[in-house]
């Protein structure tokens, strides 16, 4: 197989042609063009997880008070929030594919997600991967199709992939993954619990509930995992901004992620009072405040992470507009930027194996710990510049 061609999204002729000649088609048809419906489910097996090191409990400082830079111990591994008595920390995370073109907004169920990953898809619009572990959402949607990168992301969380379907090529790989126990797949093609809503046009009207998908997992006896890989979080939400790997970080209260300007550019604004980042995303070239369609709750991220990596076109998969699908490198190491507590810290990301989480390290060699709460992750090409001020 020939070496994948790394994308330069700012100069590639194919990108200019796609945006110039197929703008409308790529936005409306990107999500499901060319997908084949499948009805046979693979024999899913329980994932055998490799335990990862756990964070240490807060250690006393010389004065006898807890160290503000210590990592949490008794917290949910994907959000850093305290674990309540009786909580099932070993329940399997749901990894939910949610559409993100303007017509599919507002999304439903995002405020309950522990982690939300935004990824590039055909036509250079984006799609969301919402991960639910510490809490569930009553409504999830719009549910859309899986991409090749979801294979690595779902395995990273020991998750169950909730999605509407995929291409023939991607299905050949996802079904094999699920049959080998790498993760669980719950495609709408052969899984109960999905439904169509009347307030949104097809194909953006496919929804489900976390409760329905967890019931499917229980019926298959796949609802728990030995361990969910633990991300590094500070023990306390109230902490000095510079601790936990943020020494030397620059002030940054506004962030811009340079996705497509007409449909997808993202802006965050830091709110010092709540220590969270309010999110805007472009629609018709203008930023619109992101809210959860269930309850109209504003999106508020405790952490924003930018992962820069190699992203290339996959010739085996094209959408209805003729745009190629993408794949991306999600193991190894690369440049990263972490925004936390109104600060910007340049960092390095590393991921040693399929079952390992991202580890973020500052230029001083310190592990960067996240604030408890929701984390948004943007996976972008290596040549993109993420601005802040």
How would you describe this structure to a colleague?
The protein is α+β, with helices and mostly antiparallel strands and 389 residues long. It has five helices and 24 strands. Strands 1, 2, 3, 5, 6, 9, 17, 20, 21, 22 and 23 form an eleven-stranded mixed β-sheet that branches. Strands 10, 11, 12, 13, 16 and 24 form a six-stranded antiparallel β-sheet that branches. It starts with 12 loop residues before the first helix and ends with a strand. Residues 1-59 have low confidence and may be disordered.
- Name the average pLDDT: 87
Radius of gyration: 20 Å
Tally the helices.
5
Low-pLDDT windows of residues: 1-59
- The residue fraction in helices comes out at 10-25%
Q: Termini distance?
A: 44 Å
Defining key terms:
389 residues; 5 helices; 24 strands
Q: How are the secondary structure elements laid out?
A:
Elements: H1 13-21, H2 23-29, E1 94-99, E2 115-120, E3 126-132, E4 140-141, H3 149-156, E5 160-163, H4 168-180, E6 184-187, E7 194-196, E8 206-208, H5 210-219, E9 250-251, E10 254-257, E11 266-271, E12 276-283, E13 286-289, E14 291-292, E15 297-298, E16 300-301, E17 303-309, E18 311-318, E19 324-328, E20 332-340, E21 343-351, E22 359-362, E23 375-381, E24 387-388
Parallel strand pairs: 1-5, 2-23, 5-6, 17-23
Antiparallel strand pairs: 1-3, 2-3, 4-8, 7-8, 9-21, 10-11, 10-24, 11-12, 12-13, 12-16, 14-15, 17-20, 18-19, 20-21, 21-22
Compact description:
With 389 residues, this protein is of the alpha+beta class. The chain has helices at 13-21, 23-29, 149-156, 168-180, 210-219, and strands spanning 94-99, 115-120, 126-132, 140-141, 160-163, 184-187, 194-196, 206-208, 250-251, 254-257, 266-271, 276-283, 286-289, 291-292, 297-298, 300-301, 303-309, 311-318, 324-328, 332-340, 343-351, 359-362, 375-381, 387-388. The protein has 5 helices and 24 strands.
């Amino acid at each position: 197989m020939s070496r994948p061609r790394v994308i330069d999204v700012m100069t590639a002729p194919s990108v200019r042609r796609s945006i110039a000649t197929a703008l409308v088609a790529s936005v409306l048809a990107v999500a499901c063009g060319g997908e084949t419906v499948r009805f046979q489910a693979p024999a899913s097996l329980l994932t055998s997880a490799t335990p990862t090191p756990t964070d240490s409990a807060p250690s006393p400082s010389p004065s006898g008070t807890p160290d503000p830079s210590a990592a949490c111990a008794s917290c949910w591994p994907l959000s850093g929030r305290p674990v309540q008595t009786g909580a099932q920390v070993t329940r399997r995370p749901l990894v939910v594919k949610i559409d993100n073109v303007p017509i599919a907004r507002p999304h439903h169920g995002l405020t309950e997600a522990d982690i939300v990953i935004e990824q590039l898809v055909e036509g250079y619009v984006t799609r969301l991967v919402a991960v639910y572990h510490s809490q569930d959402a009553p409504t999830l949607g719009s549910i859309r199709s899986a991409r090749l990168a979801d294979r690595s992301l779902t395995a990273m969380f020991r998750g169950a992939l909730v999605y509407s379907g995929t291409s023939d090529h991607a299905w050949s790989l996802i079904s094999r993954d699920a049959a080998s126990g790498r993760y669980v797949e719950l495609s709408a093609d052969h899984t109960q619990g999905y439904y169509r809503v009347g307030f949104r046009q097809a194909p953006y009207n496919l929804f489900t509930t976390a409760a329905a998908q967890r019931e499917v997992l229980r019926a298959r006896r796949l609802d728990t995992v030995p361990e969910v890989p633990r991300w590094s979080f500070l023990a306390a939400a109230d902490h000095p901004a510079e601790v936990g790997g943020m020494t030397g970080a620059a002030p940054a209260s506004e962030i811009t992620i340079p996705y497509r300007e007409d449909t997808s550019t993202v802006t965050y604004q830091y709110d010092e009072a709540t220590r969270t980042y309010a999110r805007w995303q472009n629609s018709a070239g203008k930023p619109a405040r992101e809210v959860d369609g269930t309850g109209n709750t504003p999106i508020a991220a405790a952490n924003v992470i930018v992962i820069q990596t190699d992203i290339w076109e996959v010739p085996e998969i094209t959408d209805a507009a003729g745009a190629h699908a993408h794949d991306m490198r999600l193991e190894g190491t690369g440049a990263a930027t972490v925004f936390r507590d109104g600060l910007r810290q340049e960092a390095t990301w590393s991921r040693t194996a399929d079952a390992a989480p991202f580890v973020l390290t500052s230029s001083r060699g310190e592990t960067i710990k996240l604030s408890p709460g929701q984390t948004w992750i943007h996976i972008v090409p290596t040549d993109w510049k993420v601005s802040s001020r």
